[in-house]
Design goal:
This protein is an alpha/beta fold.
């Protein structure tokens, strides 16, 4: 059976589910190639954009990421489709928006009939592997076209599909047992904090590094697709490089003291109060010193991952595979890390939705090319497939013509926030705010558009809306939505969102 026919069958099975009929999803297949490009996809969890030199931060020690950026296409302003793990990952792996593939919040499994990158390539010549955090369902089991599978997470067993053995533990837990460590969990697993307290050589990044390097050595003569997803710098913000950065030398974010006035979303203000009033995993976040300590440890985690990325890239070089391998680096979302005195993700501020995005593509030469403008992860998979000589018709577009200067990038970026029984705001009582108001804000959905000239509208169904001019207000300290003089731009941006909703079959009602 030809590759085209198998791809057609995949397409028909997928559309039959009804999950993506509105996307005009279609795979045209891969052309036969004698020298097939390899793919090494490196990504992290919760790494904000400004964590390396090319994005303006020279205070963090990440020589390997800086070197890769010096050889790569760098998307200066890159955005996720939703600032929380599962939805964002679903887009990276499928090229579909969360509301289209069904993964609208954490711990919703990616449907079996929604194809991921190896299934879209649909080429049995490739050796395929996924190592690290998955968070798209059935965490410990190989799936979606990946032959080899190395797991590191043990907290998702409750979400396994029917019939899966929920007593199993990850490959990383088995590794720690082999070193003589005693599990601290009830099922023989090791908690995230236990792992974070281990020596550098026994932590998750080093474990994944060793597995990835072994895979590269075993498959140096084969075309391969290898995804390596590091857990860090995700919480707990703790690791073996805790003392690498001096908290006293940390500059707080420029918008650290932004007040989050009453015209900002109530949910965001409730989150801010939570971090101030309640301990975060046993630690206070009241004073500037508290925040500097947290930021210093976060940077230590970023540097920790950089060490393992460096080792994997060195192995690629030592095996003389650089000129045959596309290398991608990105993250599934950012982290507020003190901006607006917020932590973590789940908000629409730049620090949560912007991520690094590097692509080293051999046929475009190993030199840095910084691409200005604003880009969405929805275009990542189409670009990658195009670079690997495959044609598809996904919601996003290949950015290769933009990179080559053949087409101007004019497309808007769209981001969504969906809520599925999420309750992460403060449990404290607030003056003049009713429980009904809190519940309403906590259940709000949001749709955001960002234009190429820097207008950003965050349109909510139940909470306050936001309008920012990112060119004039990059730190988002002034919400223009409720000020006079902006009715025309608001109407224009709302029209863009409505059109995008129609194009992608988004059923959220906004008014």
């Amino acid at each position: 059976m030809s590759s085209l026919n198998k791809s057609e069958m995949n397409r028909r099975r997928f559309i039959k589910t009804g999950a993506a009929a509105a996307t005009a999803f279609h795979i045209l297949g891969c052309r036969p190639r004698k020298d097939k490009a390899n793919l090494l996809f490196l990504w992290t969890d919760q790494q904000r954009a400004d964590t390396m030199a090319v994005y303006g931060n020279r205070q963090i020690d990440v020589p390997n990421l800086n070197k890769l950026a010096g050889q790569s296409i760098v998307f200066k302003n890159a955005y996720v489709t939703q600032a929380v793990c599962t939805p964002s990952r679903s887009t990276v792996m499928t090229g579909l928006y969360p509301h289209t593939n069904g993964c609208i919040d954490n711990n919703i499994p990616l449907p079996v009939d929604v194809p991921c990158m190896p299934e879209l390539i649909d080429d049995t010549d490739y050796r395929t592997a996924y190592f690290g955090k998955w968070h798209l369902g059935d965490e410990l089991f190989a799936q979606h076209g990946f032959e080899e599978w190395v797991s590191i997470e043990d907290i998702y067993n409750q979400y396994f599909s029917a019939g899966r053995d929920k007593t199993l533990v990850s490959d990383y837990s088995l590794f720690l047992r082999s070193l003589g460590y005693q599990p601290d969990g009830e099922r023989g697993e090791f908690s995230r904090m236990f792992a974070a307290n281990l020596p550098l050589g026994h932590c998750k990044p080093k474990f994944l590094e060793q597995k990835a390097c072994d895979f590269l050595k075993r498959n140096s003569k084969n075309p391969f697709i290898l995804y390596v997803n590091f857990f860090e710098p995700h919480p707990p913000f703790f690791g073996p490089l805790n003392k690498k950065y001096d908290p006293a030398a940390i500059d707080l974010p420029a918008n650290f003291d932004d007040e989050l006035e009453a015209d900002e979303p109530l949910r965001y203000r409730l989150l801010r109060e939570k971090y101030y009033r309640e301990l975060y995993k046993g630690e206070p976040l009241k004073s500037e010193a508290d925040w500097r300590q947290m930021i210093a440890r976060y940077r230590g985690l970023v540097s920790q991952v950089d060490l393992s990325i460096g080792a994997i890239l060195k192995t690629l070089t030592d095996l003389r595979l650089e000129d045959h391998t596309i290398v991608v680096f990105t993250s599934d979302h950012g982290d507020m890390m003190g901006s607006h005195r917020l932590l973590n993700k789940t908000v629409m501020y730049e620090e949560a939705v912007r991520v690094p995005w590097l692509m080293r593509i051999p046929q475009l030469r190993h030199r840095q090319q910084v691409i200005p403008g604003r880009f969405g992860h929805i275009d990542l998979l189409p670009t990658l497939l195009h670079a690997m000589d495959c044609e598809t018709a996904l919601p996003g577009k290949s950015l290769l013509p933009v990179i080559r200067g053949e087409r101007k990038h004019v497309d808007d970026v769209f981001i969504e926030w969906n809520n599925k029984n999420r309750s992460d705001v403060s449990k404290s009582k607030f003056k003049n705010i009713t429980q009904e108001q809190i519940d309403r804000a906590n259940g709000a959905f949001v749709r955001t558009v960002i234009t190429q000239d820097g207008w950003k509208l965050c349109w909510s169904d139940k909470d306050k809306n936001q309008l920012f001019n990112l060119e004039q207000d990059p730190y988002e300290t002034t919400n223009l939505f409720y000020r006079s003089g902006y009715d025309a731009i608001i109407a224009q941006l709302q029209g863009k969102i409505r059109h995008w909703q129609s194009e992608t079959n988004d059923k959220l009602v906004l008014s």
